[in-house]
Design a protein that fits this description.
Elements (H helix, E strand, L loop, with lengths): L1 H14 L4 E7 L16 H26 L4 E7 L2 H11 L5 E5 L4 H7 L2 H8 L4 E5 L4
Parallel strand pairs: 1-2, 3-4
Helix pairs in contact: 3-5
Length: 136
């Protein structure tokens, strides 16, 4: 889905002569449910650093794709609640459109975890294009 999401957003930016803001949100709140997470010294910081590095790599990937089609790209890596931070970033950069991927969770997993994409769609004052995972 990653390539599908990014190629769609890059195509839109290219044809609209716009730019991309690649936003990656580090959500450490979900880690507190892991056994031993709070008890092991240094584990929290190590996991945070790994997630931050993953965010840097993901946003760099988006920037590399944008560069190939001469579209400017701003990389944003933040920590917090994903839907809140995505909406906040979109407002701060005055985005015209939010393009977001949907993991396609259903049933009990969706009830427990919720859907970041769904929250963004419902709470955004900016138009949102949701790209659903196709299973590949």
């Amino acid at each position: 889905m990653r390539l599908r999401l990014e190629s769609t957003s890059h195509d839109i930016a290219h044809h609209a002569k716009g730019c991309i803001a690649a936003v990656y949100v580090i959500d450490i709140s979900r880690l507190s449910h892991l056994p031993g997470y709070a008890m092991l010294p240094g584990l929290k910081e190590k996991i945070y650093q790994l997630m931050r590095e993953e965010g840097k790599q993901a946003t760099q990937y988006a920037e590399d794709l944008a560069r190939m089609i001469n579209v400017p790209c701003q990389k944003i890596v933040v920590q917090g609640n994903p839907s809140i931070e995505i909406l906040k970033s979109a407002r701060e950069i005055e985005a015209d459109l939010i393009v977001i991927g949907s993991m396609g969770r259903t049933g009990f997993e969706k009830i427990l975890l919720g859907s970041v994409a769904e929250k963004v769609v419902l709470q955004s004052s900016i138009p949102v294009l949701m790209i659903k995972e196709d299973g590949n």
